[in-house]
Amino acid sequence: MSEISSTDAAALGKVGVLFGGRSAERDVSIMSGTGVLAALISRGVDAHAFDPAERNIAELAAEKFDRVFIALHGRFGEDGSLQGALEQLGIPYTGSGVMACAIGMDKIYTKMIWLMKGLPTPKYASLDGATDLAQVVAELGLPLIVKPPHEGSTIGITKVVAAEALQAAYDVAAGFDDIVLAEEFVTGREFTVTVLGRGKTARALPVVEIVAPQGNYDYQNKYFTDDVQYICPAKLDDATAAEMARLALEAYRALDCEGWGRVDVLLRAVDNKPFLIEVNTSPGMTTHSLVPMSARAVGMSYEDLCVEILKTARLKLVKEQG
């Protein structure tokens, strides 16, 4: 792709890049949004920063933005609440709509829908203060992954290898959520698949394999070290890569996602069976992020990727004309 013309840039209008916000992923969002803002400006787009933690959402209307690029992660930006406000304000936005974002942000509801669609995802249990933790261990086995279902960036996650450690793991996750997700631990390789587009025309970009030190792909390793290896395209046989892409597209469409997203997948070591883990409806766009890496593998620069995503901005609750 080449640089967009001044006419095309002007057609995109005045653009707000939303980043920062009030979620636990604020710091990552600032890194993502800063990159997106610089990329759009470099392409001649009239782009402006907007931090919902520092400015009232009503000011979006006062700014008279023609569209916004959502680079917020986590609650109040990726969970449907902001998308609903933008629908009310009549400001087209990037990414998925209200319902897809709300479901995608809830890992438990996401898994319920995937299972109803016959898509593979690890066995799980929902935990609260009254749950019999011993029964959970008996049903799911060990090890377990325990996490808050409404957070991302591996925040609040614990790997539980002994039954007596489950309570402490629950307490950590419960610090972020009223309900906690306990999930069967799948031993194997870790991958992610970027999806661009909408409906039947959505397409998967090359699969990325994530190789973390001691398999620990935590918050620090994700964003602040260079110790993690990313292999793109992943070293997979053609059939496995195609199946992973197919599942990612089905998972994305099952939630009615659009614009862009990223689906995380584990490949079980014993039989090479892929398992869907979660979908990200507003993925990271930092220098360490995986969506730009997948785009580069097909010759798309970071700047071109940002412009392509921006072009898909639209209102979802108003029927398109024509």
UniProtKB/TrEMBL annotation:
Describe the location of the ATP-grasp domain by residue ranges. 111-311
Query: What GO cellular-component annotations does this UniProt entry give?
Result: cytosol
Read off the PROSITE patterns from this record.
ATP_GRASP, DALA_DALA_LIGASE_1, DALA_DALA_LIGASE_2
Instruction: Describe how the cofactor binds.
Output: Binds 2 magnesium or manganese ions per subunit.
Residues the entry annotates as binding Mg(2+) 2: 278, 280
Keyword set for this entry? Answer: ATP-binding, Cell shape, Cell wall biogenesis/degradation, Cytoplasm, Ligase, Magnesium, Manganese, Metal-binding, Nucleotide-binding, Peptidoglycan synthesis
Q: Which cofactor does it need?
A: Mn(2+); Mg(2+)
Q: Where is the active site?
A: 25, 153, 289
Specify which residues bind Mg(2+) 1 according to the UniProt entry for this protein: 264, 278
Q: Which GO terms describe its molecular function?
A: ATP binding; D-alanine-D-alanine ligase activity; metal ion binding
Example of a GO biological process term: peptidoglycan biosynthetic process
Q: Where in the cell is it found?
A: Cytoplasm
- Does the keyword section mention Nucleotide-binding? yes
Its recorded reaction(s) are: 2 D-alanine + ATP = D-alanyl-D-alanine + ADP + phosphate + H(+)
Q: In which pathway does it act?
A: Cell wall biogenesis; peptidoglycan biosynthesis
Which Enzyme Commission numbers does its entry carry?
Answer: 6.3.2.4
A Pfam family it matches: Dala_Dala_lig_N
Which EC class is this protein assigned? ligase
Carries keyword Ligase? Answer: yes
NCBIfam families, per database record: D_ala_D_alaTIGR, PRK01372.1
**Family that this chain belongs to:** Belongs to the D-alanine--D-alanine ligase family.
Function field = Cell wall formation.
This chain belongs to which protein, by name? Answer: D-alanine--D-alanine ligase
Supply the gene name. ddl
